[in-house]
Specification:
This protein has 403 residues and is an alpha/beta fold. It has 17 helices and eleven strands. Helices cover 46% and strands 14% of the residues. Its EC number is 4.3.1.15.
Length: 403
């Protein structure tokens, strides 16, 4: 399925609140915060010239977030950043003075953090980031996971000392339960999705993601002409599209949002022209994107700056995982989890469909930017799908052959 943006807000300026969240000064602040993270390092921007030639475009660059902050996904930038910001703000309130990120590990800030509990719902990656952020500052974390989250992903979050709470139902059920329990107990919800009356903290989470865009643009000799980004509730797609709209103005790249067909909440929202909740059906292999209700902030941004919306099927997501693990020509291998390569799946579908290709003006001059949003966050599942362990795929780049 494919549709172009026909919303009344399309190509209108960003809401001032969103422009502030995703603007240059905010992105500078995120990078300064990251400078105080012990394991912070830029993630690689991977060039795939053989794949670009095969698909008939000028270039394909993938920002590989499978290496981010030891957590294996772009979510490492969001939840932990929001937790740190909230702890510093609470410390400033209690101490009656400004508190800088350089004081993050001071006894004053630690004493405040120890009185705080942060909570969130997660498919796996966001909860890991929130839990890590809480551990960094000495706060408690309560992470709500729905029935579809694998035991391996739960264990990975729990190792950061978080209290794990299982919830029957879907991701959206776990979001509602987390909000309910947090309100009862006075915990702070650090969600990556937003709802009426709850926007600022999801905005901070999205603000954290601006770093991957800044890093990628600095590494490119020429800016991209086209961007394909996968979406769950829409946070990463809205961040990339919104920040690029601010950075490039009218010269921004053509932006396409890619949904799993089985959880296409943003596609259906774009079709309806307003936020909608899609029915929960058969689970998708794209587990980190299995969301049935969009973030209101994300939709407010994407309604203005996304050019098109499309869906991909289960077999396409799986094929891309295998294709990145066993690349064409001399392209490097990339370990992409079940949701990591969905933007590439969208690109492949687009170039293979003459109508979509023409609608997006894809041709041999097109420069494509994608994000591998996660590595093998469930290594067992990855090996089951790809037929090789994540380590064996990674070794290809060192040996030139499968290990």
């Amino acid at each position: 399925m494919f549709l172009q943006n026909t919303h009344a807000d399309y190509r209108q300026p960003l809401d001032p609140r969103d422009a502030e969240i995703l603007g240059m000064e905010a992105a500078d602040a995120v990078e300064r915060h990251l400078a105080f993270r012990e394991n912070h390092a830029e993630t690689p921007l991977v060039n795939l010239p053989a794949l670009a030639a095969e698909l008939g475009v000028a270039s394909i660059h993938i920002k590989d977030e499978g290496h981010r902050l030891g957590l294996g996904s772009f979510k490492a930038l969001g939840g932990a950043y929001a937790v740190i910001r909230l702890v510093l703000e609470e410390a400033a309130r209690r101490l009656g003075r400004a508190v800088d990120v350089s004081e993050l590990h001071s006894s004053d800030v630690r004493e405040v953090a120890e009185t705080m509990t942060v909570a969130c719902a997660t498919d796996g990656n966001h909860g890991r980031s929130v839990a890590q952020g809480a551990q960094l500052v000495g706060a408690r974390a309560a992470i709500f996971v729905h029935a579809g989250v694998s035991d391996e992903r739960v264990a990975t979050i729990a190792r950061f000392g978080a209290e794990m709470i299982r919830v029957d139902g879907t991701y959206d059920d776990s979001v509602r339960e987390a909000a309910r329990i947090a309100a009862e107990k006075g915990w702070t919800i650090v969600s990556d999705t937003s709802w009426p009356g709850y926007e600022r903290i999801p905005g901070l989470v999205m603000q954290g993601y601006t770093t991957l865009v800044r890093e990628a643009l600095r590494a490119m000799q020429q800016p991209p002409t086209h961007v394909f980004i996968q979406a769950g509730v829409g946070g990463i797609a809205a961040t990339v599209a919104g920040h690029m709209a601010i950075a490039f103005g009218d010269e921004r790249p053509t932006f396409t949002v890619v949904d799993p067909a089985r959880a296409a909440c943003l596609f259906e929202t774009a079709r309806a022209g307003h936020p909608v909740t899609v029915a929960h059906g058969e689970p998708t292999v794209m587990a980190m994107l299995e969301c049935y209700e969009p973030s209101l902030v994300a939709w407010r941004i994407l309604s203005r700056v996304a050019d098109a919306f499309m869906t991909v099927d289960e077999d396409e997501a799986i094929a891309v995982m295998r294709r990145l693990a066993d690349p064409a020509g001399n392209d490097p291998a990339i370990v992409a989890g079940e949701s990591g390569g969905v933007g590439l799946a969208g690109l492949i579908r687009a170039v293979g469909n003459p109508e979509i290709k023409q609608a997006l003006s894809l041709d041999r001059q097109s420069r494509i930017f994608l994000v591998n949003t996660e590595g093998a966050t469930d290594p067992g599942k990855y090996e089951e799908i790809v037929g090789l362990s994540p380590a064996a795929v990674a070794r290809k780049n060192k040996t030139g052959a499968s290990a």
